[in-house]
Write a structure and sequence with these properties.
formyl-coa transferase, domain 3, about 15% strand, Rossmann fold, 19 helices, 3-stranded antiparallel sheet
């Protein structure tokens, strides 16, 4: 089956989440991704969170469809090998602290002289410029600096974070967008390669909607609002009789009227001052209490059925246990069962987005450390004698 990025040659020098997630996204759609890892231990993600034996099951998601080249980037001969590979590559991805590649002679200026068509994605905490460029940056810090942590949680309580590395993943996706635009400029517009500079905090900041103009014009600082959405009403999580919560999005004008009829509050549904969102925002507390009074008398299942009958958007809070066998997830192949090298099977996330003519594919799971070292170097023209010598001196594994 044809994949949209078939033939695209990618070198991944990232570790953990942001760089590897970007490379995984390209690999899902056919790019040939060579993942460079340190010979001793490889990418730390190999053992993060929930290892089975010596390998994390997360590894099989983050590194699927990739080839592993175990190579010491700190060794001059290892650096020379990267320059050799970069001469034939389309894309290079890295997420080291700014200045690291420069110290290794692998910076964009050096590599682009060898290969003017090379596109380099550089993901870091604060970007390649500015007074904070040299500071180490992690997702949790970026999420706070970008504004997400301040608005997450309950009013008056300590800020909370989602239990995933959302700042890293958002940066990876911004990086993929930048790479695809750079590839379009190069291959369609006839341009050359370029550097794509992604900062973790900026990727989070880009999700902050109207926060900047709201502050500039009105001095408004967006605050945490629990399960509600500030400035939009009604939309919230409402308690049910069985201790669960139903999420209701009744903020469309006609939807709001149907919702008020359902909960027995036509007085609120027909009030002229509540006919549009600005008026409802002012009365959010009253409206939310009317809805909650209705949901508290019903189980989650009964509430969802009634809301569906009234054509009011609603849903439940899903855990992974709810997702893994859910008909919608299965119909869309968002949970896939794959075979591992040891013959066991593992359920993993499917591929998104869905392309009708050239969909992505899962062709292999996370490789063993250095599984493709010899294969990659042979293809680059490195002799068998040099491969043996480099392995003996621990430059490769």
């Amino acid at each position: 089956m044809t994949t949209p990025l078939s033939g695209l040659r990618v070198i991944e020098m990232g570790t953990l989440i942001a760089g590897p997630f970007a490379a995984k996204t390209l690999a899902d759609f056919g790019a040939d991704v060579i993942k460079i890892e340190p010979p001793e231990g490889g990418d730390p993600l190999r053992t993060w969170r929930t290892p089975e034996g010596e390998t994390s099951v997360w590894w099989h998601v983050q590194s699927r469809n990739k080839r592993s080249l175990a190579l010491d980037l700190k060794h001059p001969e290892g650096q020379a090998l990267v320059r050799r590979l970069a001469m034939e590559a389309d894309v290079l991805i890295e997420n080291f602290r700014p200045g690291t590649l420069e110290g290794w002679g692998l910076d964009f200026e050096t590599l682009s002289r060898l290969n003017p068509r090379l596109i380099m994605l550089r993901i870091s905490g604060y970007g390649q410029t500015g007074p904070m460029r040299d500071q180490p940056g992690f997702g949790v810090i970026a999420e706070a600096m970008g504004g997400l942590r301040h608005i997450t949680g309950e009013p008056g309580r300590a800020p909370i974070r989602p239990a995933i590395s959302i700042g890293d993943s958002l940066s990876a996706l911004h990086g993929v967008i930048g790479l695809l635009m750079a590839l379009y400029h190069r291959d369609v517009r006839g341009g050359q390669g370029q550097m794509v500079d992604v900062a973790l905090y900026e990727s989070v900041f880009n999700m902050m909607e109207g926060a900047i103009p709201e502050f500039d014009r009105f001095g408004m600082v967006r605050e945490p609002a629990g399960s509600a959405l500030p400035g939009v009403a009604p939309t919230n999580a409402y308690p049910c009789a069985d201790g669960q919560f139903v999420l209701i999005a009744g903020n469309g004008d006609s939807i709001y009227r149907r919702l008020m009829a359902l909960v027995g509050r036509n007085d609120l549904g027909g009030a002229p001052e509540l006919a549009s969102n600005p008026g409802r925002v002012k009365a959010m507390t009253v409206i939310d209490e009317a809805i909650a009074t209705w949901t508290r008398q019903r189980s989650l299942v009964d509430a969802l059925q009634a809301l569906a009958d009234a054509k009011v958007p609603a849903g439940r809070v899903f855990t992974v246990a709810d997702m893994i066998d859910h008909p919608q997830f299965l119909a869309r192949e968002m949970v896939r069962e794959v075979s591992l090298a040891d013959g066991s099977t593992l359920r993993v996330p499917g591929i998104t987005p869905k392309l009708s003519a050239t969909p992505g594919q899962i062709t292999s799971m996370g490789p063993d450390l250095g599984q493709h070292t010899t294969e990659v170097l042979r293809a680059a023209g490195v002799s068998e004698e040099d491969i043996h010598r480099l392995r003996e001196s621990a430059v490769i594994a």
